[in-house]
Give the backbone structure.
Amino acid sequence: MTAPFYVSPEQVMKDKADYARKGIARGRSVVVLQWAEGIVFVAENPSKALHKISEIYDRIAFAAVGKYNEFEMLRRAGVRIADQQGYLYDRRDVTGRALANTYAQHLGTIFTEAGKPFEVELVVAEVGDDAGEDQIYRLTFDGSVFEEHAYVAMGGQAETVSAYLKEHYTDGLPLADALKAAVGALSATDGDPRELLAGQLEVAVLDRTRPQRKFRRLLGSALEQALA
Amino acid sequence: MSDVPHGTTIVAVTFTDGVVMAGDRRATMGNVIAQRDIEKVFQADAYSAVGIAGTAGLAVELVRLFQVELEHYEKLEGSTLSLEGKANRLSSLIRGNLGMAMQGLAVVPLFAGYDLNAGEGRIFSYDVTGGKYEEHSFHSVGSGSVFARSALKKTYREDFTAEDAALASISALYDAADDDSATGGPDVTRKIYPVVAVVTADGYERLTDAEVGEHAETVIAQRMTEPGGLHAPIR
């Protein structure tokens, strides 16, 4: 009988992390940023059927990059947990923080125990009564949670996109300006800047002025108008 | 089972652009009025309403579960169920309560909504076994439903506007309250009026207390001269 090769745990973790990072870097980017009345999510996503951004609960939304089947599984689990909690207790008892914690547990366990880590990066965002109460959590493939403020970029060109947002983002932007900054950031690739049209974008907002369910997608002509 | 609160009369009336659902505000425990401002008409989702008659506690819980199920489906699948689909789902929820119903704790909702595919308002009624029946033009459930339905039979017109349908509903509830002790009429001293919901292609909208109050005043003014309601022509 031959003895299996010894591989140090450090090496295993490093290989897994590299593998996940490579997978995530292949996809297109998603940006999440605060605007005056809430949080806006913009993804470069030509598909109308496969969403990268979705509603989780009244004040909570989800955005992801990476492997679709993996983050879709997490999204569905999130919706299920949120709906169960809200039904069991009260709608106000469903929080973004609790959901981010649950995701962190899942991702952490999968990263250490499964043969292959999830190639995903997520944002769980909760809109508050004012900008100071907005919460944006970014979760990475290994289950780390980062609480973000103002803006977040994930996916393929995250660094370039973040650099653009750092220059163009200010607090309290109206929706049109926030969208402009987001689209500008997604267009700013290393090479020539591209022009992104409404048809290539998936856009949604958490709007604190809406009653109860704050999530709203901007579709078709509404999106074109908002981008104009 | 007179020791738990029961909900009483709900009516639904279709009109050219959708459907109106209205419910009185009384809950009874035997001969006692358990609550005079209970709400029995609820928004099920963006395009539908559900009204409840029967054991209030079970009915309210059933509605809560129904609302969560519709929202859950919508979020998971990224699209809303068809109106038929929602009506069928409610059917199985009611069937789940059959055991309790056989022991005297029945829940009988009325479901109405705007069918985005057909472009019209539709009404579904149920029996305690979960049997689903589509109703046309108007329908009513609860202890005062016989009287409300008879009233609507005389007042209903195919070309109703939303306002006509709301007025006819409030008027029918007035007739139900007139003859059924478990149904509450408009309470002008406390300003407690029926809950009236209008569902159209623009979605679910609950009329404000001021709007319903105005309609209720119209009906009451009418009844001052004709206590049984407007005379229908016989020839």
In short: The domain at 6-225 of chain B is CATH 3.60.20.10 (Glutamine Phosphoribosylpyrophosphate, subunit 1, domain 1).
